[in-house]
Amino acid sequence: MASGDFVAVIDGDLQDPPELIADMYRKALTGFDVVYGKRRTRAGETIFKKATAAGFYRLLNYMCEIEIPTDTGDFRLMSRKVVDAFKQMRERHRFVRGMVPWLGFKSVPLEYDRAERFAGETKYPLKKMLAFATNAILSFSSKPLTMAIRLGFLTILAGLVGAAYMLYLKLFTSIPVPGLTAILLSIVLFSGVQILLIGVVGEYIARIFEEIKGRPLYLVAETINI
User: Is the pLDDT of residue 115 over 80?
Assistant: First the structure.
């Protein structure tokens, strides 16, 4: 709904300094359509949080076909033409820090030191962080499906090798062939792989189901001074 020539996106927890928006604006005027905040330091965050965040962005860049800047959040300034293009992306599972780079406009980072949280507690415990990471990967990569196919082929190959080995033991050696235990373990293993692969496919199908509903992303109850 923002109507300005430039639009800033910022979290409400006061960790990203609003005063940097002026610096972003000045930098945008030098010829950039997107100026995004890049964190040099992240005060008040645990080593685990910093390590998992670093690992997540590197994994995401490996999985995706576009390059997503590391150590960034949603804090950024965008020109009107970027906002207009962004508004055409109506999917419900919205990973903004991946959607904006996908648009391909000229971008530049603005490095800053992120302060500690001013008040309250984080709304992103480990469970939500994992859900966030899953959403990012599923929204911008089809590699999980490709990896599922490869895993299926590897599993079949392992089964064929195992079957050939069992046959060799039966025909050419006096070593007793493992019986019921080996069969049960194999069934459990292959069943687990099948369930896992079905789950991966199911995640993509669930997203298709939500997208085809075509529900609005938001409803505006009232506008002021527009």
Answer: no
